[in-house]
Amino acid sequence: MWTQRYQDWVKEQVHFEQPAQEYTLLDYQHEVEHMGDRIRRLDQAIAEAVKLAPPRMQEVMQSLQALRGIAQISAVTIVAELGKISRFDRARQLMGYSGAVSSEHSSGKRMQRGQITKTAMLICADRDGGGVGISTPAGDRPRLRKRQEGLSEEVKEIAWKRNTGYISATAT
Questions:
Q1: Is the dihedral of CA 85, 86, 87, 89 positive or negative?
Q2: Measuring CA to CA, which residue among 75, 68, 74, 73 is closest to residue 134?
Q3: The dihedral of CA 132, 45, 60, 155: what is its sign?
Q4: What b/e string do you get for 42-55 counting C-beta neighbours within 10 Å, with b at 16 or more?
Q5: Cα separations in angstroms, 158 against 13, 26, 83, 93
Q6: Among positive and negative, which fits the CA dihedral 121, 42, 75, 154?
Q7: What is d(CA 62, CA 2) in angstroms, rounded to the nearest whole number?
Q8: Shortest CA distance to 2 belongs to which of 127, 130, 131?
Q9: Is the pTM of this model over 0.70?
Q10: The 3-state secondary structure of 152-165, one letter per residue
């Protein structure tokens, strides 16, 4: 989604001599505004649906948001896709179910495991910051700290360990 600053810049600075090009630009601008409004409406609808969810499900979604890169939309998506997360006895089972497993290069008896495959990676696309590739330490993010407000110390500790990489992804 375009930032408001960028939208203002386009409106003020980008113009074409040919009317057809100018009309096309205006159409693009209107479409960006329309899609932005649509995203806001859908975000609001999801927020309302979360309020109506069972308390235990709300707790799981709130706890997931303690993780760096996981905001409300990502947490809702994870819960919707996985269902009852407690059905997985170990993190390894959850990772296998999700497809987030390491790549493998094997030939005959030789087998070498590598990074998590690109198709298996969770894309941290929350629009309120804290996604993949951010170099700020996890505890320094105001939005992340705000999402952690009201969570138990146990949940915060687990999230801190995961966010800083102090425990492995196969730990339970």
A1: positive
A2: 68
A3: positive
A4: eeeeeeeebeeeee
A5: 48, 48, 21, 18
A6: positive
A7: 28
A8: 127
A9: no
A10: CHHHHHHHHHHHHC
Read off the pLDDT of residues 46-95 as tens digits, 9 standing for 90 and up: 999 999 999 999 999 998 888 877 889 988 988 888 888 888 888 778 77
Cβ–Cβ contacts within 10 Å for residue 147, how many? 25
Q: Which residues of the chain have pLDDT under 70?
A: 1, 99-104, 113-140, 163-172
Rounded to whole angstroms, the Cα distance separating 132 from 68 reads 8
CA–CA distance, 172 with 58 (Å, rounded to integer): 21
